[in-house]
């Protein structure tokens, strides 16, 4: 059995991209500025990271306008939502030590046992 880290998704694993995907997972869609402010990055940094996620098929970008003001909406695709769930599951498995074979670990010596000298 492969270690749970083999199930981590490289497109999501980077801290900023993980934060973006986690933010989008909490809603059906979010305004670009809301995500930028929530993740605490610049417009250009968000654009770059969203491009990576969009290329992976995980994020959809929709541009609309409100009067004369353009708005950009971000949302997770169905595949993006599944990838995020798999990634979080792998992180939880790593944190829980799921891959540890505790049966194969020898018992530590008893510090109270008498030593034969």
UniProtKB/TrEMBL annotation:
Superkingdom field: Bacteria
Organism ancestry: Bacteria, Bacillati, Actinomycetota, Actinomycetes, Streptosporangiales
Protein name: DNA-binding MarR family transcriptional regulator
Pfam families: HTH_34
MF annotations from Gene Ontology: DNA binding
Protein keywords: DNA-binding
Domain Winged helix DNA-binding: 16-94
């Amino acid at each position: 059995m492969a270690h749970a880290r083999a199930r981590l998704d490289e497109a999501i694993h980077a801290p900023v991209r993980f934060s973006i995907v986690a933010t989008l997972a909490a809603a059906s869609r979010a305004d670009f500025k809301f995500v930028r402010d929530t993740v605490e990055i610049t417009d250009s940094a968000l654009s770059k990271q969203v491009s990576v996620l969009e290329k992976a098929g995980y994020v959809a970008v929709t541009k609309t306008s409100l009067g004369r003001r353009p708005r950009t909406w971000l949302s997770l695709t169905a595949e993006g939502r599944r990838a995020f769930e798999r990634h979080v599951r792998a992180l939880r498995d790593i944190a829980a030590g799921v891959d540890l074979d505790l049966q194969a670990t020898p018992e530590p010596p008893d510090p109270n046992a008498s030593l034969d000298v």
